User: What shape does this take?
Amino acid sequence: MDIVIRSSYSKASLDSLEKYTGKSKPYVKSAVDAACLLRMIDNQDNGYFATVKQCSELLTAKPSEELKIAVFRKWLQAWEPFILFLRHLAMGDSLEVSARRLSSFYSFNKDIKAIFELLSLWAKTCNLIDAKGSLIIKEYELEVKELTEDFSRDLLDDVGVRLYLNRVLGDEVFQWLTHSELEELVVSLLTYQDNPRSAIECSGRAYEDILRRLSVEIGTIDIKKIRAKSGISELANNVLYAYRDDSGTAYSFINTKQRDISQAIGSIRNMAGHSMEAKSMERWELSSTAAIGKILTTISSIRSLFHYIKYSKYLF
Assistant: This one.
């Protein structure tokens, strides 16, 4: 964290970081690589590094050890590979096996032994595992099966939500999601009780981005036509379900039911995003029950679309 703290004062070079920490150049380089990996600092492309604004704002001029660990944990558990690592620990795998399975999804420039030693150290530092390598997280954080209106937000901390998303989506879909898409889903689950309207919009933005990205990854759809469509309903109906190329040939990349579910998700998102209904000039009141229902349907639909388009599997 000393690297991050120094870089929060002003842009720092490797030489200045060596002087600040009193560590060797290889150590500093390794620490910088780790901080960049966790998105705590940015490489300014001119040999200098700067702590990202959100992280810098949390650190004081002389942060306590507790604050350092808290800030580090916040960024660590927002790093998707670490959540997969914890999830495999939760399923009973050892530290080494969890690291090995993680390596099957992500490419690291380290051998498996180095990976599991590093992740184990980080997890212990953040009090997420004990000395024996067992996960220190309460059962409800790992088995969030029913998110009801009276489910206390206090039970849904950040790492618990990420573990829940990993379990529901599965490893392959979870690691396929971009960081921004995943963050939107995390925020929606953390805020659906306090701000259902905003939570619906968060999950809606993620879903629209995912529909657009799936359309691009199919490879046969004209990019210009994808860009011309706006909103979930247009993407689901006119691109993924009823696409026509320049010759007029029609293609359908998703099932009718998936199209209908996507349009329903789009309609609920519009309830949250639009201020008033055009005809009645009335505004929809949205409950936390409606919000969590929409969010969970969105998550299930993401998994369903991914497996249908990639593998022709019927999952929901």
In short: The chain is about 60% helix and 5% strand. The beta strands are 12-13, 41-43, 48-51, 243-244, 250-251.
